[in-house]
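User: We ran a pulldown and think these components assemble together. Before we commit to crystallization trials, I'd like a predicted model of the whole complex to look at. Sequences follow.
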Amino acid sequence: MLFASFAIRMLEWMFFVGLVGSTVVVLISFYEDAIELFGKDE
Amino acid sequence: MMPLFGLQMAGHRAGTLAMASTRTTVAPPSNRVRLIVASSVMLTFISFWRAAAIVLCDLGSSAFYAGGIAEQAVGAAAPWFILGIMLFSFAVRAVYVESCSMFTRGGVYRVVKEALGGTFAKLSVSALMFDYILTGPISGVSAGQYITGLMNELMVVAAQSHWLPPALMDAQNNPFQFNMDYTSAVFAAVVTIYYWWQNIKGIEESSGKALRVMQITTVMVVILLIWGVYSVFIRGAVLPPSPIPSHLHFSNEALGFLKGRGLPIFGFFGILMAFGHSVLAMSGEESLAQVNREIEHPKLKNLKRAAIVIAIYSLIFTGGATLLASMLIPIGPRTQIYQDNLIAGLAMYMVGPMFWRIAFRIFVVIVGFLILSGAINTSMIGSTGVLMRVAEDGVLTDWFRKPHLKFGTSHRIINLVFILQMITIVASRGNIITLGEAYAFGVIWSFTFNSLAMLVLRWKYHGERGWKVPPNLRIGRFEFPIGLLSVFLVLLSVAIVNLFTKSVATVSGIVFALAFFIIFSISERQNMRRHAITARQMKDHFQLEHQDTISRESAAIRPGGVMVTMRDPSNPLALKWTLSRTSTDERDIVVISVRMMGVGGPEYLNAEEQSFSEHEQMVFTKAVSVAESFGKKVSLLVVPAGDVFAALVQGANSLEVDSVVSSVSSKMTVEDQAFHMGQAWEALPEPKRQFNFYVIDPAGDVKVFYIGPHAPALSPDDVQLVHRLWLNMRRDPSVSDLHHSDIITYALTRLAGQYAREKQEILRDLRNYRAAESPASARLGGPNLSNIPATPPAAGKPPLPPKTSL
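Assistant: Here's a predicted model for the assembly, 848 residues in total across the polymer chains.
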């Protein structure tokens, strides 16, 4: 039970830390996408 | 320049090649046949719009079932998780863009193999196969649910209007209702059988069809969103409960192995579980890597554009439709009637007259049928492509690669995929919740393997990398991939949680993936022995030579040669016909055998990646023995390609041949063969050469077609008419210097101007004119093809070719 609880907390930590980082990825993607879609062609 | 493999007889030109590309030559004894192995694959390229349409046919189809399945598992807050998944898919997409910027076909198999080795690659491709195999049944059953739901609704409406015959009413005066699950299963089975047969015959992959389906879907999405938002404003609907732990209500099935264990799973961990139950909404991202190979130049820019379109479209469609459904459909009908056909329910709960709501629902069902049945085909083509890829890599035995005798398709792989899909449909008995449960396993694990491999490749791979997932923190020489690691952490945590909360997925996924893994491992071991023998035999008979691309000069072919197609070693008819009519002292004969690469196959094959199957060995050996029996020399070429006709026209163009000779196809008419050849020629970039295409039937009769622009074959009557007009017009002194060609130029210019104004009338007149013409005269639709009455059928003799020696 102790191990299971630890694993659950560990997964929660991984998930939420990953989610914060992924949010940054998505925000940068939005910015880059806007440039890609509306920016001038080289 | 063109990519191909070439075999050439008996070392006649071994010392005369002027190679323009890199090559690795095995030192030959003088009596061996030269075999040039090309690395680049012949492809036709598509725009990013078409690429996006192909991916969206898979990814967008999940909008029809993901919301309902997620709500069954986690409760009314599900739409927020679907939206969250669709936003997260932007990050997953970024991982695929990075992998595709490194490898043209940056799918799971290639990336994981590069990073983690063959064993992990086999494991990841097994998970991917589970995803692909299940895409078919879940899409088929979902389409069935929409159609059955509509039929049942129409039964109720008909009963209320007293249109239903008594035979379709029960004792309580209720209308007959089809069983949703069983009827859907039957529907899914029928559509799967249909596409199985189409694939066996060799269905034409068409990005145009995908584009049309997505255009129709877009019309539906626009109506859905505008009408839905309007309905929300009129009704004053409220948003679904926020995605916090206290709002999550997991079904018993959604707890999986964690049920009754007393674990602290209803806090933040619940959010993680709910995320895992919604992950199937982004299934289909892998198709981006599969389609990347075909994207036109500039590849990376267009890949990014396609990825943007895909991500935005699926966010709006899947996320928006699920959110609107939860706001407009009351919870009772939403979870008990429309849980399996949520968008149909949304149509019925719009604001407006019943007639228009039913009409829109019918439209939704039609669109659902198109996109979901398209997804069945995509899953069959995709899973066949993945298996072909591993077969090409020597991980599946040659038995799977042997082409169908009549249709030339990889029928054994298609049959395997079909059987697995039918077993899935029967086992699920049309229950989409069960299918959805299982489906997420393949989706999440293939993503996880891919992101792990990409993470490893940040340190391991030092080749070209067009783009990186941001942000990356650089400290001195060390670069820390924050973005990539974050995506991997989310995927890994969700994948692990799903192992415990999705019991059906875990059990079926592990059994399936293990079964495939074992098959792959045993096959690979057997293949290593067999391929070693084949490779030795090939080296004994042929002088192996690897080239990136090849041209006429590098293949040492003189201009104006003859190219002969050969696929079946038991049917060398075209080669015999050509050999009997060609003096090889004057013209070179090139025998070409197209090696079809599966969907998502590579754009480039290294020498060590190319293993010859027993079938190919038989084709080469037969071609050589036939040539020897005529006492003539031939060059044998094997071309890796995505499309056989594209390969032939590219081959003919690069080798500057005047004629291409082929046997009659077993799956299309002679005219269709020529039409496809003409279409492929049209798609060929400039500069391009015209050539004659000869098709030989088993009786030895020949038809010849000019491929490319050419002077039309005017009948004597046409010539007479021009001449009479010329005589008549010249009587006018002002045009006394008139030429025959002036009349034709004037007539055509005038027709072109008239055609611009009165297109339909002219086409109708043309149809009437052609109908009045002799029905026996075969004509082709392509603008650059014309059928030359090559030979009287009774005579069965070949036409006079442009060069007398053929």
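The longest helix of chain A spans residues 2-38. That may be worth checking against your pulldown data before setting up trials.

User: Thanks, that helps.
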